[in-house]
Amino acid sequence: MSRILVVEDDPTNALLFRMILEKRAGFEVVVSESPEEIFELCRGGTIDLVIMDVSLAHSRWEGKPVNGVELCQMIRNDPTTAQVPVMLATAHAMRGDAESLLGDSGARDYVSKPIMDHGTFVNQVKRMMRKAA
Question: Is the dihedral of CA 48, 50, 83, 112 positive or negative?
């Protein structure tokens, strides 16, 4: 069974991601916004995809606030986690913002929140995981 790490600071959004991905697609979902736990899971080789919220209100790395773009950059720059595909999730993407976020972060794809079409989102996740395999 494929395992997805959802990095999300909003409990409602985290629950929605979990429900969609577990119920509609049968994925195992882990939710965290702790950078230490994120890296531990990614380094462990058990995560097939990370869905990363761009704005993280409570995440801190080495005592400093860190957002999803910065965490994605850190994942990309660490040789032990660089192969883990990351999809950004944001409610703030305006036309052109998504491309900028992808370029800045090194993420492979993005999804706009709220997720309105659950089937399209599940298909997007499955496509991304096939490309990473």
Answer: positive
